[in-house]
């Protein structure tokens, strides 16, 4: 029969508030809720915003490179890109060098959204109500954790 010390250690290990996964999950939900009205002004969903940020950094990426950058598989990314293409934010084109490869390019409409989106990080920083360096440290810690969790 387990001792009361073992039971309480097991109980603590299973408490919801002690779970990193739940802290990350619930924070992600809160962030998405924060972004929703900011992105509605741009007529973007949060996943679309992520695609736009990557393409604002580097236009003309292949679909596979875009998926790797966003940690999305092609089954998720392709319908997303198709909707964005229908909204005239981007275009998908077969690579001249390799027809098997599809590259994604911003349209003029997609590039113009960058000016409007430039205000979003300041809104998020204000809502977080903590110093920028603290947020940057937290971002780096979460990125390092993601890298360790996804390493082979």
Automatic annotation (TrEMBL):
Localization, UniProt: Cytoplasm
Keyword Nuclease: no
SUPFAM superfamilies, A to Z: Winged helix' DNA-binding domain
Assigned keywords, A-Z: Cytoplasm, DNA-binding, Transcription, Transcription regulation
The keyword Cell cycle appears for this protein: no
Predominant location: cytoplasm
Pfam families reported for this sequence: Staph_reg_Sar_Rot (PF22381)
GO molecular function annotation: DNA binding
SMART domains documented for this protein: HTH_MARR
Superkingdom: Bacteria
Domain HTH marR-type: residue ranges: 17-144
InterPro entries per the UniProt record, alphabetical: HTH_MarR-typ, MarR/SlyA-like, Transc_reg_Sar_Rot_HTH, WH-like_DNA-bd_sf, WH_DNA-bd_sf
UniProt cross-references to PANTHER family, sorted A to Z: ORGANIC HYDROPEROXIDE RESISTANCE TRANSCRIPTIONAL REGULATOR (PTHR33164:SF5), TRANSCRIPTIONAL REGULATOR, MARR FAMILY (PTHR33164)
Annotated protein name in UniProt: DNA-binding MarR family transcriptional regulator
Organism whose genome encodes this protein: Rhodoferax saidenbachensis
